[in-house]
Design brief:
Radius of gyration: 19 Å
Strand content: 5-15%
Largest sheet: 7 strands, parallel
CATH superfamily: Aldolase class I
Helix content: 25-40%
CATH topology: TIM Barrel
Structural class: alpha/beta
Number of domains: 1
Number of helices: 11
């Protein structure tokens, strides 16, 4: 049974996602209007460098792009500046159709400072290895992990941290890299020294760190321990079923099928603070920050159906950031997507969870 004193849901607010609607003068209805360019978040894939080979990575190994095609740091800045002009509040840095660990992108410190200076909050999906290994951090960023952690703190950056087990041997097996768990632990020790969580006047824990677990047959009995690990540090905890694509499909025997996941759904929901990392709860419904309230792009500036999705079908023409403005692309997306409420339209293709099939996916 779940210990209610430990697993007290709705106590945590993940800064950069759960607060997107606060003090929103235009209102949610304005963001959802199909004839307006307003968005709350932009997700984008970073340079394709990853130090792990996770068994559930959603990336198709055949989608790797030539480095000459990658967006430059200046092009990222152009995207972020356009996003700020459209009212965007959060920039999400991740793999987005590419095998990428964002902390391994050279120029990341510059981008975090740029996002912050334009009044937005950076949110990074990360395995933390760069923060736990000076031999990784220094060659990429010319600074030590302590300095990078300080920059993350100063720019108000929030982190969505991959952690699927607290067992050292199992952790290294899931990442396919020996020593990866030690790097994770070193990074966690570093982050706990920063003031990344605080309690507001309503006794809600505001945090800039979320531990994110992909549920598998190997870690199912460990979920409560993982949640306790997060809560001890006043961090949000999310456990979720994988998107069955990429490496997850190749290793499907490690994961629960549609019926098995449905049988376990109530239990896993009772442990997780949110059903999905990027779901936003509102009185009018539950929304995916990217699918209904924002937009995402891969490493070459092509719009995606979602952060873990395939290319969006915009019809004829070149709809990349190198040929269209962000406002034009947003309007085109809103023409094609009916942004009804629904927690995760993408996973509606894989699972029969209530609330996951209410929006169309381009």
């Amino acid at each position: 049974m779940v210990n209610s004193s430990v697993f007290n849901r709705r106590m945590y607010k993940f800064v950069g996602i759960d607060d997107l609607l606060e003090d929103l003068h235009s209102g949610l209805s304005e963001i959802l209007r199909r004839d307006r360019t307003g968005i709350l978040a932009v997700g984008v894939g970073m340079h394709e460098h990853c130090n792990y080979n996770c068994v559930y990575c959603y990336v198709d190994k055949n989608t790797r792009r030539s480095q000459s095609e990658w967006m430059t740091i200046s092009e990222y800045e152009s995207l972020f500046q356009q996003a700020a002009q459209l009212g965007c509040r959060t920039i999400i840095l991740t793999g987005a159709q590419g095998r990428a660990e964002p902390l391994m992108t050279a120029g990341l410190p510059r981008l975090l400072s740029f996002i912050h200076s334009n009044g937005m909050r950076p949110v990074i999906f990360t395995n933390l290895a760069v923060l736990g290994d000076a031999s990784l951090c220094r060659p990429i960023h010319n600074i030590d992990p302590q300095e990078l952690a300080q920059l993350i703190d100063e720019t108000g950056t929030s982190l969505i941290v991959k952690c699927d087990t607290l067992d050292k041997e199992r952790y290294d097996q899931m990442t396919a890299i020996e020593g990866s768990f030690d790097k994770f632990c070193a990074a966690v020790d570093l982050l706990t020294k920063c003031q990344l969580s605080w309690i507001d006047d309503n006794s809600v824990v505001n945090t800039r760190v979320s531990i994110s677990t992909v549920i598998s047959k190997n870690n199912f009995t460990e979920l409560e321990n993982l949640a306790s690990f997060a809560y001890e540090k006043r961090w949000l905890y999310v456990c979720k079923y994988p998107s069955m694509m990429g490496s997850a499909l190749e290793n499907s025997d490690l994961f629960f099928n549609k019926d098995e996941a449905a049988e376990r759904r109530d239990y896993t929901t009772s442990i997780s603070d949110k059903t999905e990392t990027l779901v936003l709860h509102d009185s009018t419904g539950d929304y995916c920050v990217i699918h209904q309230l924002g937009i995402s792009f891969n490493i070459v500036g092509q719009p995606l159906s979602c952060l873990s999705g395939s290319l969006a079908d915009f019809g004829t023409g070149d709809w990349t950031l190198r040929h269209k403005t962000l406002s034009d692309i947003v309007l085109r997306k809103k023409e094609l997507v009916i942004a009804k409420s629904g927690e995760c339209p993408k996973k509606g293709r894989f699972y029969a969870f209530k609330g996951y099939t209410e929006s169309n996916v381009i």
